[in-house]
Automatic annotation (TrEMBL):
Chain ranges of the PucR C-terminal helix-turn-helix domain: 347-398
InterPro entries per record: CdaR-like_regulators (IPR051448), CdaR_GGDEF (IPR041522), PucR_C-HTH_dom (IPR025736), PucR_C-HTH_sf (IPR042070), RsbRD_N_dom (IPR025751)
Family: Belongs to the CdaR family.
Name of this protein: PucR family transcriptional regulator
Record-annotated RsbT co-antagonist protein RsbRD N-terminal domain positions: 29-176
CdaR GGDEF-like domain span: 193-298
Region (Disordered): 407-431
Signal peptide extent: none
Compositional bias segments (type: Low complexity): 422-431
Domain of life: Bacteria
Pfam family, one: GGDEF_2
């Protein structure tokens, strides 16, 4: 920088020295107009219960004092050090939800602009008045340092604010999870939990469990759950994290319209949602959750994708509560069709679709992508193996056919993977 005799007489031999001297000398006269400009442009900054103007004034003074030090380095891009008070003040505002982050960032922009205007005025009214070249040198230095300072202040504030909010959210989530765990396990007072959760336990609930396949990101799960829940427009909602790949939730929905909305809502690949049936009161809160857990268990066993409603799989859920009984029922009802092997598997799939299509060879063939005559021949073979005609209204046959994909076949004896036990209202669903 070019040294100037005029700048030297005004308070320093260099632009940065002139700036530091100006701030030290005029800091008291600058405070009131800067505070007025800030509170006029950003009135939301006045949040203190007692003497809010004084709190803003103290904050502005702190920034001016720090800026005085920032104007003294020899290099305009040297590191800016924020005072520790900024961190404490930012965390306190976030913790008490006193001032939103955009308001804080706007206050920095306002203070930056106001301070710049006062600097320009000072350069034109100083005695002696710096020359045009000297004013340009001071303004060039000031522009670089002011920009660096307020950019650093904004970035630091945004980072601290976000970190504090994330910490608060983790604590709140942990507390919600503890309360829900206690509700499911019967270890907390429902009335006290209801007040703290802000969720009406006496209402008519619909519980759900959402989860992702391994390898799918949790962000996709959160976004999918939010989209589905918003589409249902519940009166109240409550959700807690599960095992890292799942979310457990409850909605207060009136009527039965939620069923159709939930069933037809498309989900991203790898994301699944299981729904319990509607149930009322504190007992219903636990019941619909248990049903959602059961629906998930059945969906996992069947390899189903997307959305599953408990009412659609209730028979399968109840029938598979006892694995050995379910296996025996399937073997007894399906006979040689349950023996396994390529032919048996192909015939079972044909039977399953045939029953779902109420015995229509044409619709069955369309779904299986085969000729209707092929379906007729397969059904003749199925009836031969069963030793009786196939009746689409036969509940036992329909149930056994669906169960056949969930139980061990004779050639898999001793290789059955254990099922995940259903929720009993303990801590299992919310960890």
């Amino acid at each position: 920088m070019t040294r100037s005799t005029t700048i030297g007489r005004a308070g320093g031999s260099t632009p940065q020295a002139w700036l530091a001297g100006w701030l030290r000398r005029d800091i008291e006269s600058l405070l009131d107009p800067l505070v007025s400009a800030l509170t006029t442009a950003v009135p939301e900054i006045l949040v203190a219960a007692d003497a809010p103007d004084r709190h803003v004034r103290d904050a502005v003074r702190m920034h001016l004092t720090t800026l005085t030090r920032c104007f003294t380095p020899e290099e305009p891009d040297s590191e800016i050090a924020m005072p520790s008070l900024v961190a404490r003040y930012t965390r306190a505002l976030a913790r008490h939800d006193a001032v939103a982050l955009p308001v804080l960032l706007r206050s920095f922009e306002t203070l930056h602009a106001a301070l710049w205007q006062h600097l320009v005025t000072a350069l034109h009214t100083a005695d002696p008045r710096p020359s045009a070249v000297e004013r340009a040198a001071v303004m060039e230095w000031a522009a670089a340092r002011l920009f660096a300072y307020f950019r650093t202040a904004s970035e630091r504030t945004a980072s601290l604010y976000g970190t504090e909010l994330a910490l608060l959210e983790r604590r709140a989530t942990s507390r919600r999870t503890d309360l829900v765990t206690g509700l499911l396990g019967g270890t907390v007072d429902p009335a006290a939990a209801q007040r703290e959760l802000g969720y009406d336990l006496g209402a008519r609930h619909v519980g759900f469990v959402a989860w992702t396949d391994r390898g799918s990101g949790p962000d996709r799960l959160d976004g999918a759950v939010r989209t589905v829940v918003e589409a249902l427009r519940p009166q109240r909602r409550l959700r807690v994290p599960g095992d890292g790949r799942s979310v457990h939730g409850w909605l207060v929905c009136h009527g039965e319209g939620w069923r159709e909305l939930a069933a037809r809502r498309s989900l991203p690949p790898g994301v699944h949602i299981a729904w319990g049936g509607p149930a009322s009161g504190y007992d219903g809160f636990r019941t619909t959750h248990a049903e959602a857990q059961e629906a998930r268990r059945v969906a996992d066993a069947l390899g189903s994708a997307g959305t599953v409603l408990f009412d659609d799989v209730a028979v399968l859920a109840l029938a598979t509560r006892d694995d050995s009984a379910a296996t025996a029922f399937v073997a007894r009802t399906l006979g040689r069709l349950a023996a396994g092997g390529d032919e048996a598997d192909r015939l079972l799939r044909t039977l399953r679709v045939h029953l779902a299509e109420l015995g229509s060879p044409t619709r069955t063939a369309r779904r299986l992508h085969v000729h209707p005559n092929t379906v007729v021949k397969r059904m003749e073979r199925i009836e031969s193996l069963l030793g009786r005609p196939v009746d689409p209204a036969d509940l036992a046959l329909r149930t056994a056919t669906e169960l056949s994909t969930m139980v061990a076949r004779p050639d898999q004896a001793g290789q059955v993977q254990p099922e995940t036990p259903p929720s009993t209202g303990s801590t299992t669903p919310v960890r």
